[in-house]
Amino acid sequence: MTVPKTVRIWVEGDARGVVSPKDLILHLIGDPYFREEQWRESPTDTCVIQLGGPGLDQWNVDELSVLTNMTVEGGLMTGIVEPCEPSGPSSASAGGSRSTTCWSTPTRGPSTCGRSRSTSPTSR
Fold first, then answer.
1. Given this model, what pLDDT does residue 87 score?
2. Which pLDDT belongs to residue 89?
3. In what order do the strands lie in the sheet with 78-81?
């Protein structure tokens, strides 16, 4: 089994009305590091983009899905969005059922359920 390389992108700032998720991902996959596959060390290497940060809170779940779906257009394996306000536990399904979302972030320790997660700059 080959474990894909993971590149973490930290998004900050308010880009509402200026930069769309599509603009962001096209800029990222157009960067020489990804476009020229500088991350690749062997022909079987794959790469995943992991997006996180407070800048993602400005976009809804549909807009965040653009980030994950467009990574494949750049020749990457997939994209992952870290839990943020639009995708967190407050997102109820269309059927109205309430569920608790649990996630695990390697840089922040063991899995976390609900809203209690660290967002301090030191936890990056």
1. 65
2. 53
3. 5-10, 47-52, 78-81
Q: How many helices (H) and strands (E) does the chain have?
A: 3, 5
Write out the two tokens for 40: 């690749």
Are 43 and 85 a contacting pair, CB within 8 Å? no
What is the mean pLDDT for each group of 10 consecutive residues in the chain (124 residues)?
90 88 94 91 91 92 92 91 73 40 44 38 41
SS3 (DSSP) at 100: coil
Look at residue 44 in the predicted model and tell me its pLDDT: 87
Contacts of 44 (CB under 8 A, 6+ apart): 2
The pLDDT value given to residue 65: 93
Buried b (16+ CB within 10 A) or exposed e, 73-102: ebebeebebbbbebbebeeeeeeeeeeeee
Distance in angstroms (rounded) separating the CA atoms of residues 87 and 64: 9
Residues in the chain: 124
Rounded Cα distance between 17 and 46, Å, is: 33
